[in-house]
Amino acid sequence: MKNPLDSILGTIISGLILTFVLYSFVKHFVLAGV
Amino acid sequence: MGIFRWLHILAGITWIGLLYYFNLVQVPAMKDATADGTAAGISKHVAPRALLWFRWAAVATWLMGAALLGPNFGVAFGLKVGFTGIGIGAWLGSIMLFNVWVLIWPNQQKILGLVTATDEEKAKARRVAFLASRTNVMLSLPMLFFMANGLSHKALIGL
């Protein structure tokens, strides 16, 4: 499998996915119940 | 505090601006320049200067960010309520600073011939520096998302 970081587009898509994952992590685990 | 915010943003623009320059301009340009035999000028005159501003702007950004957090430094890195957004941004920025000084700069020194290295070591250094730089571009997206956590952003995403 090709490393997504080898292309600019793959890097940007990876960054967007990571943003969503971190946002979900914060909302559902760090701030859960607040 | 206001002056730290101003300096943090100034240094951050310099750092991330050069990061994007490397990834969007210099890396593809080096590929073409190597093909037509003109890469030496970039390696000798452009890359060392860009790397100098890049790595020290990274340090300045982190230090000004730490100063801006002030007594809330531990609260932010501990991802406490009210500081979760900026805390995630601070962690990502810190990882990026680590990448600059531990992975990118030592390997760039080998690539540019500032320290001696065999051809095999240079090839390996090129790949490590490239991936660390691309990792920082990837991390810059969530880093800016979480750091640009103004009032409108708060209303939108509630962090």
Characterization of the model:
The complex is a heterodimer of chains A (34) and B (159). Chain A has 34 residues and is mainly alpha-helical. Chain A is built from 1 helix and no strands. Chain A has one helix spanning 8-30. Chain B contains 6 helices and no strands. Chain B has helices spanning 2-35, 39-69, 73-77, 84-111, 119-147, 151-157. The A-B interface holds A 3, 5-6, 8, 11-12, 14-16, 18-19, 22-23, 26-27, 30-31, 34 and B 23-24, 79, 81, 84-85, 88, 131, 134-135, 137-142, 145-146, 157-159.
Write a brief structural summary:
The complex is a heterodimer of chains A (34) and B (159). With 34 residues, chain A is mainly α. Chain A has one helix at 8-30.
Number of strands of chain A: 0
Tell me, what's the shape of chain B?
elongated
SSE pattern of chain A, N- to C-terminal: H
Q: Whole-Å distance between the termini of chain B?
A: 22 Å
Strand content of chain B: under 5%
How much strand of chain A? under 5%
Oligomer: heterodimer
Largest sheet of chain A: none
Distance between the termini of chain A: 41 Å
What is the average of the pLDDT values of chain B? 93
If helices are DSSP runs of H or I spanning 4 or more residues, what is the number of helices of chain A? 1
